[in-house]
User: Which sequence fits this backbone?
């Protein structure tokens, strides 16, 4: 059985923090009650410090680039963002005790 909680209820039950450089997004897209930390995901040391402070219990990564044509033309850019930066998140989680 799964339970779907409306956003407002979920935000009252959990602290939700978005870590984003806002390279391709904007803070206005975040619902009320969500904290934003502007931080590039390639800054591993800053992520570690942040995660040690926040001590997150869960992580959801929505930061991947998705354009297939561009990924073929700019493979290194996609490797760096979609693999290396995700690795930074995982290492920061481990350092933060998650």
Assistant:
């Amino acid at each position: 059985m799964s339970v779907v909680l409306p956003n407002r209820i979920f935000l009252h039950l959990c602290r939700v923090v978005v870590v984003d450089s806002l390279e391709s997004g904007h803070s206005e897209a975040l619902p009320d009650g969500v904290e934003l930390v502007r931080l590039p995901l390639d800054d591993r040391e800053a992520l570690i410090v942040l995660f040690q402070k926040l001590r997150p219990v869960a992580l959801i990564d929505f930061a991947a680039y998705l354009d297939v044509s561009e990924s073929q033309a700019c493979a290194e850019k996609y490797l760096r963002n979609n693999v290396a930066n995700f690795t930074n998140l995982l290492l920061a989680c481990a350092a933060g005790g998650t």
